[in-house]
Q: What sequence folds into this?
């Protein structure tokens, strides 16, 4: 893998030592970002205060000095974890959760534009994208080629959950590893996920949930996929998902972050 893929491999190798979180900044600033620690802390504040426009500009500035995948792994993912934890504890309410997610999306969109031309291409890759829910997702997949590439992955944010920034980050990292992605979007019904697996023959499914009210839909999706497509495996992740919960709903894999999802996929398809 070259370009952004090579950067991804380097970024997800050995994690550098990080400074302890300060009272002002709830995430640790990795040593690799030490020279830009103030900028990182400012970006975290922009996310927590839900300020999308300055977040895009701050990301553009940081990209001049740092690897885009490292920014995702070491800034975006940790602050999203903080946002999720604050929402779960009641410190954040739904409007704050959505504003923070939009701020991260603004930064992520800048990175996606920067890396779009560097991603590896595959003539056999079938990438279907939809954010309009289960009906559109199913129709989109139906329009795709029936047989997916051998290493294709179906991704979806589960039914009832309209937050897809985490899923989109995972998608970008997996694409940088060369995996064809069948993206069903957000608020995707279990039946639509099953239809995608059946129509494409994908062997790995990734499910994301940001809200505790939607984890039941994640369990139903896993049960349906396992019943109808026993050869398919399901990995789960998201701010409200833990290893314990993943085990309790019979998920095959738990990805604590986007980097872990790439490691899981690489190991799974190497078998």
A:
């Amino acid at each position: 893998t070259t370009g952004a893929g090579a950067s991804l491999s380097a970024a997800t190798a050995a994690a550098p030592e990080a400074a302890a979180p300060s009272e002002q900044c709830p995430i640790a600033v990795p040593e690799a970002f030490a020279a830009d620690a103030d900028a990182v802390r400012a970006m975290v504040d922009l996310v927590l205060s839900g300020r999308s426009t300055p977040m895009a500009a701050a990301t553009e500035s940081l990209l001049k000095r740092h690897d885009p995948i490292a920014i995702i792994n070491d800034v975006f993912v940790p602050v999203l974890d903080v946002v999720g934890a604050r929402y779960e504890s009641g410190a954040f309410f739904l409007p704050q959760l959505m504003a923070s997610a939009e701020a991260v999306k603004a930064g992520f969109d800048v990175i996606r534009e920067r890396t779009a031309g560097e991603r590896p291409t595959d003539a056999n890759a079938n990438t279907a994208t939809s954010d309009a829910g289960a009906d559109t997702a199913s129709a989109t997949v139906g329009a795709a080629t029936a047989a997916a590439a051998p290493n294709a992955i179906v991704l979806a944010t589960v039914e009832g959950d309209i937050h897809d920034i985490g899923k989109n980050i995972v998608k970008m990292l997996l694409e940088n590893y060369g995996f064809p992605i069948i993206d069903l979007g957000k608020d995707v019904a279990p039946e639509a996920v099953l239809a995608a697996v059946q129509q494409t023959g994908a062997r790995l499914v990734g499910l994301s949930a940001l809200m505790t009210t939607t984890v039941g839909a994640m369990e139903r999706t896993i049960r349906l996929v396992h019943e109808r497509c026993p050869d398919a495996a399901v990995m789960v992740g998201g701010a409200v998902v833990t290893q314990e919960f993943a085990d309790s709903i019979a998920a095959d894999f738990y990805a604590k972050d986007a980097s872990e999802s790439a490691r899981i996929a690489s190991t799974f398809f190497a078998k």
In short: Residues 43 and 55 are 6 Å apart (CA to CA). Residues 134-269 form a domain with the Rossmann fold fold (CATH 3.40.50.280).
